[in-house]
Design a protein that fits this description.
The chain is an alpha/beta fold and 496 residues long. It has three domains: 41 residues; 174 residues, NAD(P)-binding Rossmann-like Domain (Rossmann fold), CATH 3.40.50.720; 231 residues, NAD(P)-binding Rossmann-like Domain (Rossmann fold). Helices cover 39% and strands 17% of the residues. It contains 17 helices and 14 strands. β1, α4 and β2 form a beta-alpha-beta unit. α9 crosses α17. The protein is globular and about 65 Å long. The chain starts with a helix and ends in an 8-residue tail after the last strand. It comes from Litoribacillus peritrichatus. Pfam families: adh_short (PF00106). This is 3-oxoacyl-ACP reductase.
Length: 496
Amino acid sequence: MSKGQQVRKTIQHISNFKKSASSADVYQNVVNHPWAQPLVKALNLPVPLPLKRQQQASEEFLRGKALFGSASTGNKEASPVANAILTTLSHGSAKLFYLKENDSQQDLLSASKTHPLRILTDASQKLSALIYDATSVANPEELTAVYDFYHNNIRRLGDHSRIVVVGLTPSSCKEAAQASAMYALEGFIRSTAKEIGGKAATANLIQLETGAEHLLESPLRYLLSQRAAFITGQAVTLSKVSGSNEKINWRQPLMDKTALVTGASRGIGKAIAETLARDGAKVILLDIEPCKEDLESLARRLGGHAVIADVSDKKGLNKLIKDVQKGSETIDILVNNAGITRDKTLARMDIKRWQSVLDINLSAVQRITEALVDKKVLKVNGRVICISSINGIAGCFGQTNYSTSKAGVIGYVEAMDKVLARRKITINAIAPGFIETQMTQAIPFLSREIGRRINSLSQGGQPEDVAEAVAMFANPASAGLRANTLRVCGQNLVGA
């Protein structure tokens, strides 16, 4: 078949794809199809590897073979952080390995007595994860240990694999040299994520305060799992707080919890409600009157409670809360998801467009959160998760109102953290990038394709990617995750 015939055949298949699924990632479907491989090879086209996402709640968070390393060599015992990491890894089904490079690694040898660690001897083995404890790195010179571990092993990574580095928060370091080394890990992980993105692999950093290692399990499980398939190049901070004695059922960690999700009838809100219900939560779903039919249908399917309310109605706030309490007197989780866009360039934007977006996307978040806290509807040890946007970080042409509101959400989360911490309530934000929703379906084809490709994974995310991040923050084991803004964007080049 000539190259011209191949091109014509490809165009026909693309046309068929567009007719059959207008919301599909047409390019990704085409270049991964067997009949397109000769053309892909001839034109040297990039081939985004489809992500593997969590299919069932019972799936293991880590499979295959995982290699663990630590900078804390020469100690008689494994460091508290290394032990916390190994304890978490031992709960997965992956086979755990370490490299015996010299006899000074007594910390790992000691740890291997209590954790199922093996020495990795076969250089040809493909690995599903590379996990490194860098918390003992004391200065920039010692970052060579991080380089050595990943330089020598990164070629062993298979498709859909995971890299996680654990370091300290720079603010918790006593010496400037160590703080600079810990901050340097952010640059390391962001660059590494871009290098392995073609394998649908991810690289992320957990920065913890000294003494917070007992809270590592929740973010570590998440970042190593398929639930975090669209999270890469990100740093998550873990604060030192008193640990919860609550025993976690990791298959249904939200059992006996109640969650309120605003803007829940469709898209990301719907996916959040479904995911929280999957994890055991009773869900209260809130949306506006035009969405009543979809909202009530979803509530019936999930065994939840539907509330019809407008979050921008200041006078109706008390009624909103009373309607919520018809579903449950108190709640454990609040997800501020409701939001709108009213796009125009600033010169053409009328005051109504400005005010409506700021009111629903930002002011309503403040009103509802603080009312639920003040009236003690949101319990002690509760969780607040606010949906921001990558455009709140980077800005966007024609979206000064939307970008302003979403940046304000991030600021609100950071400001409210200390206030809510008094009641042991955590608050975090999620900033989605290009997510395949009805809103992105309306974007012109070429712009939509560009939006999908400008991230390290070269594809758009799904609503469930945002929902899985919400579920991680909502987990009772996530008490140390405070005032984070997690970018669910595949390491989008815009604001990454």
